[in-house]
Amino acid sequence: MSGMDPRIGTWTLNVARSRFSPAWLAVMRTALPVEETAVFRETGEDEVELSINGTQADGTATSIAIAFPRQGGAVRILKGGFPDGMTIVSTTMDRRDFYATYMLNGRQVFLAQSEISRDGLAMRIRTRGTDAHGQPFEQRLFFKKQPPVEGMPDLRAKKNLVRSLKIC
């Protein structure tokens, strides 16, 4: 799957379209973002690294980084942003559908499903869990994939070329 992972690249959060849960913000000990950029990159044959940088409504900069096996497994927290006692396990369902189970001190607090659109340009993350009082919550985040940086391969252009050759 190397080189064909649709997550690889830079994604920006569509804050206006996203719906944030106060319960999720409380569990993660963070505030509403005004902007956020997620960068997925391959760090090895079977590993992907995710770095998320953003700005909260109060102007505070945020930065986290995790690494996870491409096919799923234990997630390594590389830096910042997670409460003490937080562990994460990723599950890969297929090329466009991924889950992450978040546990705090051994208790599951939420499950995040990431789904990438067929064209590879949009990602929706639906998070469901329970707050500190046992009340259910849900939030939805929407990300848009950014064009590749000059000099980097553009898989969309290659797909369009293949499609046009098939038509001929």
Report the sheet with the most strands, covering strand number, pairing sense and barrel closure.
Answer: 11 strands, antiparallel
How many E-type strands? 11
Q: What does the overall shape look like?
A: globular
CATH topology: Lipocalin
The percentage of residues in β strands lies in over 45%
CATH architecture: Beta Barrel
What is the name of the CATH class?
A: Mainly Beta
Q: Rounded to an integer, what's the Rg over CA atoms?
A: 17 Å
Uncertain residue segments: 156-164
Structure description:
- The protein has one domain: Lipocalin.
- About 15% of the residues are buried.
- It is mainly beta and about 170 residues long.
- Strand 9 and strand 10 (about 120-130) form a beta hairpin.
- The model is unreliable at about 155-165 (pLDDT under 50).
- The radius of gyration is 17 Å and the shape is globular.
- The chain has 2 helices and 11 strands, in the order βαββββββββββα.
Outline:
The protein is mainly beta.
What descriptors fit this protein?
about 170 residues; mainly beta; Lipocalin; eleven-stranded antiparallel beta sheet
